[in-house]
Description:
Elements: H1 10-38, H2 49-54, H3 57-90, H4 95-116, H5 133-149
Helix pairs in contact: 1-3, 1-4, 3-4, 3-5, 4-5
Amino acid sequence: MVAINIQPEYGYVVLTAVGTCFLGTWHGMRCGAFRKAAGLGYPTPYADSAMMTSASAEQKQKLYLFNCAQRAHGNFLENHYVALTSLLIGGLRYPLLSSAFGLVWSLGRIVYAVGYTSPNKENGKGRLAGAFFWLAQLGLLVNAGLTGYNL
């Protein structure tokens, strides 16, 4: 049997984890704002090609940005469970490093979302500025793997 000793620094891991949950809420609120600006009623998940074809140029931009916000939120949800699980596991052995990776991951997710919804970037290319979240996510996964290996 393995006894797990939780270090006092694990509190940083918990705070970072809670922060990622607030980040998810922020994503949802951003989608709501872009939805409202586009005039799309709930529960329409995306503006489809028929909506885009019949829209004015100004409305097309609003629909496009809503779609980008939805995709950024969806990508966050696809990756959140991996980051959160890895953060909580890796933090058992490497609390400060895991928390740092978690903070960088969160910052990357913010830059990704804001960049994705930038009206100045074509085809959502603004999201690439936040792609560094992948490196932080890899760090979280490695920390979690090492924690398991060293038990």
